[in-house]
Amino acid sequence: MAENISGIIDAIAEKAAADADKIVALAEEYAAAKLAAATEEAERYLSESAADTAARCAFIRERSESNARIDRKKALAGAKADVVDEVFNAVRQKLENMPVKEAAQLFIALIEKYADDGDTAVLSSRYAAEKGDIAASPAAVKKGVSVQTDDKLSPGMLISGKTADKDFTFASIAAYYKEVMSADVARQLFDKH
């Protein structure tokens, strides 16, 4: 009987060993299939992630380039505006540095064209030496324009009337022409022919 039990135990051990080999083979097969599926999933994820990253990078690059183009245009527009401003600042300075006698002739012409009867021409004190000549000019005499000076007035002249004042200070003249002519000046300076 001991032999019989020993044979049964051997048979059970052989069966268990055979079953274990089958289980290990099945486990290895299952593990290989799972590893292959996981590798395939990881590759697909990596591929999708790389495509998504590339698309995002392209979008960021495109947006950055667009922003750079916009910033460049803004900088150029600002620089052009600064140049135009400098043109009109130079005009103002040229008017302000005009010889006093030439300025007096300009004021007489402005009185002739823009003054009404009985107005007062107020000159910047810089032109005080020409006050008499301006008051004695045919235009001032004909219209009864009196001439005064003002220490606080910037270079140029005001024509003060009963209903309105007309500002012919050189800063105002330059500002007026800047408003009216800036676009034309910019076009002449920067448009390619």
List the helices and strands and how they pair.
Elements: H1 2-96, H2 100-114, E1 120-124, H3 131-135, H4 138-143, E2 146-150, E3 156-160, E4 165-169, H5 170-190
Parallel strand pairs: 1-2
Antiparallel strand pairs: 1-3, 3-4
Describe the structure.
This protein is α+β, with helices and mostly antiparallel strands. Helix content is 74%, strand content 10%. The protein has helices spanning 2-96, 100-114, 131-135, 138-143, 170-190, and strands spanning 120-124, 146-150, 156-160, 165-169. Strand 3 (156-160) and strand 4 (165-169) form a beta hairpin. Helix 1 packs across helix 5.
Structural key phrases:
5 helices; 193 residues; single chain
Brief write-up:
The protein has 193 residues and is of the alpha+beta class. 74% of the residues lie in helices and 10% in strands. It contains 5 helices and 4 strands.
Number of strands: 4
Helix content: over 70%
Largest sheet, in brief, is: 4 strands, mixed
Portion in strands: 5-15%
Unreliable runs:
none
Determine the mean pLDDT: 85
